């Protein structure tokens, strides 16, 4: 195999080094765990999402074991917004995970997947009365309250149905997570959480309100964080807050530490569970707290890829990178258009790796200039009919898909070992308008 792929460019070698679950086989091409992506592309077509159950389970267990090694009592609540497919929730529930939800729909989805209400926490800045009522009636583990106004509304609803609501106050610590500005949540300018300086006063108020059971605090500073430094800053501020609350006679038993653990899309360092666990043990261990975390991207991101086929190789002149138009688009994976996100791209067939490399522009077919997957990416020359894999697409991929440009939703496949199964069929064209209704009073066609 070494001689067969000896001419790989350094950029591809580096990508394979940072993605140990991807390997090149001289006969099967690109393997995702044990799964042949060429076989999946041949059987299921494209565009197609592929979730590897083995990789997902291994990542969950790596995270879980890191906390157990530090003898920490940590509840892992999977952040469903990253990818809420029932099959994924079912798998994680069987591994012992709970769920971090941000809507009533996600609550019902988590319950459908068999996640116990005792393992569900409800985050989000704009919970409606109906959603809060559902959460109280279901008696989930905790509601992460984001404002004084929400706290009072929650008390009113809880009284009306004669049940108590267990709460943590989500605190905005005004800590810069050093991540993309669109996924930063812990700065004072962000909409999330209760201002740090108001936290004690609002927590006292929670104790005085009827049908409210205060558990403690919640802090979440952002997403795609690789360094432990922002977490250290946030945790130190929360330690001071917890000590002050306890000094004033207020019980604090729980701290939800949020999530946001980063992965290596390109050349970033992936967040290390052992380093996070060590930090939590050092800073939070002495406080005798029940701890929680809310990982999403770190678990599911590297566990998924998006298979796409080259539709056209479009020359842009002898001195410019050609445009490679693929059948996946921004309606499938919106992250590059929304965040200018970088995703690794690798050909699937082994034969492609024998071709000369050149700078390529990888674009989708949607009628928008932002439908871009890569610019000047050094890859083997790609031709119509070739399949590629867009990497780290398990998080914020299929869950954010749309049918823009009347493009049906892609198929979703789950693999384990050499097994594969459809977990969501490819949407048909007719499905796009089956629920659309023309008003009865509108003039009929003659």
UniProtKB/TrEMBL annotation:
Its EC number is 4.1.1.20. It comes from the Bacteria. Keywords: Amino-acid biosynthesis, Decarboxylase, Lyase, Lysine biosynthesis, Pyridoxal phosphate. Pyridoxal 5'-phosphate binds at residues 260, 294-297, 396. GO terms for biological process: lysine biosynthetic process via diaminopimelate. Its cofactor is pyridoxal 5'-phosphate. Residues 57-299 form the Orn/DAP/Arg decarboxylase 2 N-terminal domain. The active site is at residue 367. Pathway: Amino-acid biosynthesis; L-lysine biosynthesis via DAP pathway; L-lysine from DL-2,6-diaminopimelate: step 1/1. The modification N6-(pyridoxal phosphate)lysine is found at residue 81. PROSITE patterns: ODR_DC_2_1, ODR_DC_2_2. Substrate binds at residues 297, 335, 339, 368, 396. It is an enzyme of class 4 (lyase). The keyword Amino-acid biosynthesis applies. InterPro entries: Ala_racemase/Decarboxylase_C (IPR009006), DAP_deCOOHase_LysA (IPR002986), De-COase2_CS (IPR022657), De-COase2_N (IPR022644), De-COase2_pyr-phos_BS (IPR022653), Orn/DAP/Arg_de-COase (IPR000183), PLP-binding_barrel (IPR029066). HAMAP family: LysA. NCBIfam families: lysA. Homodimer. Specifically catalyzes the decarboxylation of meso-diaminopimelate (meso-DAP) to L-lysine. This is Diaminopimelate decarboxylase. It comes from Commensalibacter papalotli.
């Amino acid at each position: 195999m070494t001689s067969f792929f000896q001419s790989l460019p350094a950029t591809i070698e580096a990508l394979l080094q940072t993605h140990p679950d991807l390997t090149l086989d001289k006969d099967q091409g690109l393997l995702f765990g044990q799964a042949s992506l060429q076989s999946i592309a041949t059987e299921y077509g494209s565009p197609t999402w592929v979730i590897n159950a083995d990789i997902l389970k291994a990542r969950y267990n790596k995270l879980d074991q890191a906390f157990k090694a530090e003898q920490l009592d940590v509840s892992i609540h999977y952040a469903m917004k990253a990818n809420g497919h029932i099959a994924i929730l079912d798998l994680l529930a069987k591994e012992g995970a709970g769920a971090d939800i941000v809507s009533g729909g996600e609550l019902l989805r988590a319950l459908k997947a068999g996640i116990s209400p005792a393992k569900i926490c409800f985050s989000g800045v704009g919970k409606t009365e109906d959603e809060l009522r559902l959460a109280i009636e279901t008696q989930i583990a905790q509601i992460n309250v984001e404002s004084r106004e929400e706290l009072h509304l929650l008390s009113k609803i809880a009284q009306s149905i004669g049940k108590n609501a267990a709460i943590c106050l989500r605190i905005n610590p005004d800590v810069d997570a050093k991540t993309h500005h669109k996924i930063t949540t812990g700065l004072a300018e962000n909409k999330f959480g209760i201002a740090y300086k108001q936290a004690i006063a609002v927590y006292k108020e929670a104790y005085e309100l009827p049908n409210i059971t205060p558990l403690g605090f919640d802090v979440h500073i952002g997403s795609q964080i690789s360094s432990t430094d922002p977490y250290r800053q946030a945790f130190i501020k929360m330690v001071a807050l917890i000590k002050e609350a306890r000094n004033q006679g207020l019980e604090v038993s729980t701290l939800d530490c949020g999530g946001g653990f980063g992965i290596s899309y390109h050349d970033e360092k992936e967040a290390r569970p052992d380093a996070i666990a060590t930090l939590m043990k050092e800073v939070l261990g002495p406080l005798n707290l029940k701890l929680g975390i809310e990982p999403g991207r770190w678990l599911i991101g590297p566990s998924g890829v998006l298979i796409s086929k080259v539709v056209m190789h479009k020359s842009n002149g002898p001195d410019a990178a050609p445009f490679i138009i693929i059948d996946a688009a921004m309606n499938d994976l919106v992250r590059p258009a929304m965040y200018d996100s970088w995703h690794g791209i690798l050909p699937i067939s082994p034969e492609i790796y024998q071709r000369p490399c050149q700078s390529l522009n990888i674009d989708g077919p949607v009628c928008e200039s932002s439908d871009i997957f890569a610019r000047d990416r050094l890859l083997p020359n790609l031709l119509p009919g070739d399949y590629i894999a867009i990497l780290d697409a398990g998080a914020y991929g299929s869950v954010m898909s749309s049918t823009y440009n009347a493009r049906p939703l892609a198929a979703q496949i789950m693999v384990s070992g050499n097994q594969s199964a459809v977990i969501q069929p490819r949407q048909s064209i007719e499905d796009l308008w089956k629920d659309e209704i023309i008003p009865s009073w509108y003039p009929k066609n003659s």
